[in-house]
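Homework help board

Subject: predicted structure for assignment chain

Our instructor gave us this sequence and asked us to write out the predicted structure in token form, then describe one feature. I got the tokens but I'm not sure how to describe them. Can anyone check?
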Amino acid sequence: MTTQPPGGDGPQEPFPQYPQGPQPYPGPPPGYAPPPGYGQPGYGQPGYGQPGYGQPQPYPGPYQPAYGPDPALAERWRRLVAWLIDSVILGIVGGLLLIPAFVQLAHRMQDIANRYPDTTTPAAQAAIRHAVNGVFSHFLLLGLLALVISLAYYWALTAFGGATLGKRAVGTRVVAASNRTLVSPAVAGAREAVFILGPAIPFIGFFFWLIDNLFLTWDPKRQCLHDKIAATLVVKKEAVVTQAAWG
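My token output:
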């Protein structure tokens, strides 16, 4: 078939005829094997056809995204039990210190009763006040001594081992918040000074003690105020980066 354009002279070459519409794939050449998955949805995407393709993949690096509290931090119940154990130990020591003062007061009261059958007389009342004032001064000195003993107890065991006896019983240690190594004696001293001496402040000591210990109930790192000030954490002993020689 020949075509002649308008205005042209003579016969012209026929126009090539092209197939209309989609044509079937003629297939690969002889000897060619198509890769697995060829022609299926998703072919050509990285990892297609491999096990797990299309499934959520774990984070590739060594640091997994963290959700929720750090599992290395000591639970609140551990810190409470450790504090109770340490309080019982120090309470026994303090009680042993106070026993002689109570015995002395009892002896003085017995002497006053023997000398003054009627303890309502002015002389008897004066003798009782004198005895009580003397024992009160003794109690005050013993209280200061108990405070020093408590500070020495917490500081020495934390500085040279990372834990008091109570913390050791529940498997926790005090570490630096920056690198989770056992704290130095200076850091331990600052931490325990706030913890022990803060509650001894007249008039506001009880409120300081209350806020200090309740702070860990809402703090995301479970730090008390004395932890915040000294930049320390209380963690499970397995999370300590460097163990003490005898820890």
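Reply (TA_rk): Your tokens look well-formed. For the description, you could write something like this. Residues 56-66 have pLDDT under 50 and may be disordered. That's the kind of observation they're looking for.
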